[in-house]
Amino acid sequence: MIERYTRPEMKKVWSETSKYDKWLDVELAVCEALAEEGIIPPKDMDSLRGASYNQERLDEILNETRHEMTAFLSSITEFIGPEGRWLHYGLTTSDVWDTATSLQIIEGLDLLIEDTDELLAILRARALEHKDTLMMGRTHGVHAEPITFGLKMALWWDEVRRNRDRLLHAKDTISYGKISGPVGTHATVSPSIETKVCERLSLHPAPISNQVLQRDRHAEVIMTLSLFAASLEKFATEVRSLQRTETREVTEGFPKGQPGSSSMPHKRNPELSERVCGLARLIRGHAVTAMENVALWGERDISHSSAERIIFPDSFTALDYIINLFTGVIRDINIYPDQMMKNIESTRGVVFSQRVLLALINADMPREEAYKIVHDCAMKSWDSKEDFRELMRTEKEVKDRLPLKDLDALFDYRYYIRHVDETFERAGLV
Q1: Which domain covers residue 122, as residue numbers?
Q2: 420 with 133: CB under 8 angstroms?
């Protein structure tokens, strides 16, 4: 991921230093287990505990060998002495790489969970703040019936909660290591070593593996990140829609002096939400690659490796960035209740059509007849721009069934929000 969309905490997780540090953690954990089983002499183990790699020398050797693990090991053994022979004892590259990658992914997921908690707090605060703030609910982009802005925020809050649960589940899925040798048979390194290493690293030993941890685990992680990104794109798309000039029910925070367009000084564009949408698409694309990586030849090939060097840092970095970006959008968003009410009333009461329909049915009018009357008046209101309530008042069949005061009583916005408190309680917001 490019620097522009990278936060320092997540950058550190996916840095080369972090990777090699975790490789060393795995190698030394194996050595400790081998020492416990009497394979490595205590004196040699004392020396190994001080082992460290040399990044400069690693890079030099890598230029010669084109093999990263060999370069890593050589950069250690050149400086540690003969005790270095115990490093990588009975292991394959994937034993170290896959186990260390699990540690990186867990660290990255923990950061995303922290990000998510901040977003949840902001969404909850906005939901409660605007629990009773009326706005128009839209289906197909067309006025449907009134809702509240708080309900919209509550809906997003609930979805983000589900994404948090998915992150936790993905963490459980990836919290596995493997120290089982070249094809997973433990022929060169016993199951007891694997158990001890994973326990030391706070991982579970894979119940069974071949040369690699199976990539369905990794695919689940990336798909989880992709689904979270899809939710964020959904939310951001709504912010963009509500910010349109013709609607203007919300606007992104716009610092004083910030230009919106290089050519049109009047513009205040929803560029933060647009950025969320763009990066969300990138993450979803990586989900396809992760699923393609599940199918490897035999006990392993290397086709997944190059892709994972890109999709994991990029997906984690991008999601970390857009969660925090959208948290700021919701924290700083401008909300215009007066404009929301103006938009509600712009369709001259047709949004009450279903309530009038139900009232006529309750007054013993056949549904088909009631629907036609209400529909005809609603369409006339659309076309002639006449008030829907006034049109309903002129209908003889309506007057025969509904006294005027009963008809007028139907045109009350409070009807649509009478269960909001209950909804908030059911969701766990209050």
Answers
A1: 93-184+205-341
A2: no
User: Residue 426: inside a domain, yes or no?
Assistant: no
Band (269; pLDDT cuts 50, 70, 90): confident
What's the structural domain count of the chain? 3
Alpha-carbon distance of 24 to 4, in angstroms, equals 30
User: Are 53 and 105 in a shared domain?
Assistant: no
Instruction: Please give the Cα distance from 298 to 107 (Å, whole number).
Output: 30
User: Is the same domain home to 97 and 41?
Assistant: no
Kindly state whether residues 82 and 97 are assigned to the same domain.
no
List all residues 6 or more positions away from 98 whose beta carbon is below 8 Å from its beta carbon.
177, 178, 212, 213
User: Which of 290, 321, 341 is the last residue in one of the domains?
Assistant: 341
The CATH code of the domain that includes 293 is 1.20.200.10
Q: What angle do CA 11, 320, 103 make, to 5 degrees?
A: 60
Report the length, in residues, of the chain. Answer: 430
**How buried is 404 (Cβ within 10 angstroms: 0-12 exposed, 13-18 middle, 19+ buried)?**
exposed
Chain segment 213-229, per-residue pLDDT in tens: 999 999 999 999 999 99
The string of pLDDT tens digits covering residues 350-377 is 999 999 999 999 999 999 999 999 999 9
Tokens of 19: 């990777």
Is 415 part of a structural domain of the chain?
no
Digit-coded pLDDT (tens) for 164-204:
999 999 999 999 999 999 999 999 999 999 999 999 999 99
- Catalytic residue positions? 140, 261
Beta 142-148 vs 176-177: how paired, if at all? unpaired
Same domain, 256 and 300: yes
> pLDDT for 116-129, tens place per residue?
999 999 999 999 99
pTM over 0.85: yes
Are 13 and 316 in contact by the 8 Å Cβ rule? The answer is yes
